[in-house]
Amino acid sequence: QVQLVExxxxxxxxxxxxxxxxxxxGRTFSSYAMGWFRQAPGKERxxxxxxxxxxxxxxxxxxxxxxxxxxxxxAKSTAYLxxxxxxxxxxxxxxxxxxxxxxxxxxxxxxSFGAWGQGTQVTVSS
Length: 126
Hints:
This protein is mostly beta strands. 0% of the residues lie in helices and 49% in strands. The chain contains no helices and 11 strands. Strands 2, 4, 5, 6, 9, 10 and 11 form a 7-stranded mixed β-sheet that branches. A 4-stranded antiparallel β-sheet has the order 1-3-8-7, with no helix packed on it. The model has no long low-confidence stretch (mean pLDDT 95).
């Protein structure tokens, strides 16, 4: 059973930066693509970014492209989301997730992710 634990959220002013982390345990982390999603109050969970199991390929939602960077350190079983130039509309709970199936390609489809962390709150003030 895999466990994912996010950390690094907080309160930041618009234009600022935050890095959230996702530490995995209980499964061979390096064999699985990873994704970051977010959910704002009253809204559905939405895709933010994804990274292949090797780290060679990354994907971003249009709303964060050029501002956010996803990365992973397989030796540490940890994924990261560096968020720059934050906007108030980035305010949400951010979740990391593990793709279903080993060595599958990364995807933006939330249904393709089978293990989720508990989430970390990111609040951007204007």
